[in-house]
Design brief:
319 residues, TIM Barrel, eight-stranded parallel beta sheet, 17 helices, binds 6-chloro-9H-purine, binds zinc ion
Length: 319
């Protein structure tokens, strides 16, 4: 559906559709351990976050050149535009590429080729958010921030993603302090698979302005109260939660109760190529299965612009 909306939780590497994966594999002489797109799709049955991440990192082997990152981002922006996305704040995982021998510049320049033309070509304004892999060391995150210094005019903020449990936000205190000193905005995944305490830590230790997922706040009423009081937006990803078994079924998703509690929720796609849908598909799913009213859907769309890093005048133009 095409309600104008902003997408605030989207991993660009998670938009790699099987067809493009095979096209890039052929172009780059990379052999994938799957016979064809059907066999690859068969692997999209995940037990949890880690089983998904294993495939997500494996498929990145096909991304090698600036043009690959440009093609990936253009394909996403075209699909997003078709589903009513007017603004996209896009995560990327530098360490997943530099660890394979790519230069950070290849990734940023490639993505920027698509993002730079996105407003005129797709009608989608964009921001880039550089994520640190929390299952890598704090030193590696600091080195990544340092390597990003030549590109800071194109990077709006920093985020924290990958395997959550056992990697609490406080591990990255120093790098978030350094990012803040550089004028970067701060977000972090917290409370996806990890406990509610990680959400509190992301706020208190990392100084995040938005919490990615934040789903498990519902286990702690005092935390819910705080998030409501402090107007901290949550970037929820309903289809992701179902595919990664964070909720049993979409019908069990706490989104309606979270909205009723006064939380500033947004609905996003996370890794749409893997989880069965883009932003509009997530809106359709929560409307259909959770029976959200039109008013609630408009609230979700409005929240997405309010919680974005757009300036006020840009925000008004986008929605
Ligand atoms: C991710 Cl769903 C999710 N959670 C944490 N890290 C990620 N990276 C890409 N998708
Ligand atoms: Zn995510």
């Amino acid at each position: 559906m095409s309600l104008p909306k902003a997408e605030l939780h989207l991993h660009i590497e998670g938009t790699l559709e099987p067809e493009l994966a095979f096209e890039l594999a052929a172009r780059n002489g990379v052999t994938l351990p799957y016979a064809d797109t059907d066999e690859l799709r068969e692997a999209y049955r995940f037990e949890d976050l880690q089983s998904f991440l294993n495939l997500y990192y494996e498929l990145m082997a096909v991304l090698r050149t600036e043009r690959d990152f440009e093609d990936l981002a253009n394909a996403y922006l075209a699909r997003a535009a078709a589903q009513g996305v007017r603004h996209a704040e896009i995560f990327f995982d530098p360490q997943a590429h530099t660890s394979r021998g790519l230069e950070l510049g290849t990734v940023v320049e490639g993505l920027w080729r698509a993002l730079g033309d996105s407003a005129s070509r797709h009608g989608v304004s964009t921001r880039l958010i550089m994520c640190f892999l929390r299952d890598e060391s704090a030193e590696s995150a600091l080195a990544t921030l340092d390597a990003a210094k030549p590109y800071l005019d194109r990077i709006t903020g920093v985020g924290l993603d990958s395997a959550e449990v056992g990697h609490p936000p406080a591990k990255f205190r120093e790098v978030y302090e350094a990012a803040a000193a550089l004028g970067l905005r701060r977000v972090a995944h917290a409370g996806e698979e990890g406990p509610p305490e990680y959400i509190t830590e992301a706020l208190d230790v990392l100084g995040v302005e938005r919490v990615d997922h934040g789903l498990r706040c519902v286990e702690d009423p005092a935390l819910v109260e705080r998030l409501v009081r402090e107007r901290v937006p949550l970037t929820l990803c309903p289809l992701s939660n179902v595919r990664l078994r964070t909720v049993d079924t979409l019908a069990d998703h706490p989104l309606p109760a979270m909205l009723d509690a006064g939380l500033i929720c947004t609905v996003n796609s996370d890794d749409p190529a893997y989880f069965g849908g883009y932003a509009g598909d997530n809106f359709d799913a929560v409307r259909g299965t959770l029976g959200l009213s039109e008013e609630r859907l408009r609230e979700l769309a409005r929240n997405s612009f309010l919680a974005s890093f757009l300036e006020d005048d840009e925000e008004l133009r986008a929605r």
